[in-house]
Design goal:
- The structure is a single chain.
- The chain is an alpha/beta fold and 336 residues long.
- It has helices at residues 21-34, 46-50, 59-64, 84-96, 108-119, 144-165, 180-189, 203-215, 241-252, 272-290, 320-334; strands at residues 8-13, 38-42, 54-56, 101-106, 123-128, 168-173, 193-195, 222-227, 256-260, 296-301, 304-309.
- The strands form two sheets. Strands 3-2-1-4-5-10-11 form a seven-stranded mixed beta sheet, sandwiched between helices. The protein has a four-stranded parallel beta sheet with strand order 7-8-6-9, sandwiched between helices.
- It is elongated and about 70 Å long.
- It starts with 7 loop residues before the first strand and ends with a helix.
- 6-O-phosphono-beta-D-fructofuranose is lined by residues 15-16, 77, 107, 130-132, 174-176, 228, 266.
Length: 336
């Protein structure tokens, strides 16, 4: 039987913030309020569960921030949650407040964390929120489109100046191990080349690529996008793009500049479509909860809402089909 009984729910945002997160928080809280459910927020994600910073939602605050980037209920990375004893404390705190269902807003790492709540008797609904788009069950995560828009705006500006001077421009894009932002920005801006975790190039290969691009009569400049964390040192630390810039400039003798787009991708203004998607994913999650359906991750597939069991592996870069799709797109740019 459908259970419309009063529920106590919590919402948390976890990992790197993503534009549109606030819209999702607001929709979940508003819809829950209409149903007469009691809503809490856990400040700073899983960390807030551990420290018992679980507070009644401030509906006015979440409403008024629904068009803003960031997370008004704060977010954090909390690797300590992997420890079973830490997870036990989190669940004890949730139970103390009588909370039976948690909406987890985050990326694939946060979804892995949510399984630990389920194992301990708390129901969960996962909402995909990350600029990286590194979650496999959904076409787009909340945050991706706004971050992409920030990339496109920046690349357009960079293109204007490097075309004027005939420069080479190396541009770093976020995404951790996922190349989706880089690939989408490349098609949107018609860039000359991309280097992603799937087609890593040595500095000498980058030199050859630039020489090849510049040899084309119609090319004024060479603009190359590079996914972050490709060039790392012995300790896994990122080597600054400036080092690669110096190397290729010396070898090609072409003035070469570098630009790291950086955190404006995370803090980008949530676009209209982002807010629309955040809203419909969140409404769908509430409907599932209303009908007693839990322990699912919600996603978008075209104009359809999809749900997947939280027991799946959500890591997009470990998903053969998604990797194959990415490789096909990289090949298109490679062969231009
Ligand atoms: O996951 C979002 C993201 O912005 C990644 O693209 C990036 O690698 C990472 O977060 C940076 O994380 P932090 O803010 O913890 O340095």
């Amino acid at each position: 039987m459908v259970n419309f009984m009063k529920k106590k729910i919590a919402i948390l945002t976890s990992g790197g913030d993503a534009p549109g997160m606030n819209k999702a928080v607001a929709t979940i809280a508003q819809e829950a309020n209409k149903l007469g459910w009691e809503t809490f927020v856990s400040l700073e994600g899983f960390k807030g569960l551990y420290e018992d910073r679980i507070k009644p939602v401030n509906l006015r605050l979440v409403d008024s921030s629904s068009n803003l980037a960031g997370s008004v209920i704060l977010s954090s990375r909390f690797p300590e949650f992997k420890d079973d004893k830490v997870a036990d404390v989190c669940v004890a705190n949730l139970k103390k407040h009588g909370i039976e269902l948690v909406f987890v807003l985050g990326g694939n790492g946060s979804f892995a964390g949510s399984k630990k709540l389920v194992d301990r008797g708390i129901n969960v609904l996962d909402i995909p929120c990350t600029i990286d788009n590194d979650v496999s069950h959904t076409e787009y995560t909340i945050g991706f489109v706004s971050a992409l828009t920030a990339c496109v705006d920046t690349i357009d500006m960079l293109r204007a100046t490097c075309d004027t001077h005939g420069n080479t421009m190396l541009v770093e894009i976020m995404g951790r191990k996922c190349s989706d932002l880089t690939i989408a920005a490349a098609f949107a801006c018609n860039v000359d080349y991309i280097i992603t975790p799937y087609n890593v190039k040595s500095p000498d290969e980058v030199v050859d690529i630039i020489n090849r691009i510049k040899a084309q009569p119609n090319k004024k400049s060479a603009l190359i996008l590079i996914t972050e964390l490709i060039y790392t040192g012995k300790d896994g630390e990122q080597i600054h793009l400036n080092d690669l810039r110096k190397y290729v400039e010396e070898k090609t003798k072409i003035p070469t500049k570098n630009h790291v787009i950086g955190f404006v991708q995370r803090g980008a203004h949530p676009t209209a479509i982002e807010r629309y998607n955040a809203d419909r994913i969140s409404r769908h999650a509430i409907n599932l909860a209303k009908n007693g359906k839990y322990n699912l991750a919600i996603g978008i597939d075209g104009d359809r809402m999809v749900e997947t069991s939280i027991n799946e592996n959500f890591n997009r870069v470990e998903n053969e089909k998604k990797v194959h799709e990415a490789l096909k797109l990289i090949n298109v740019i490679d062969n231009k």
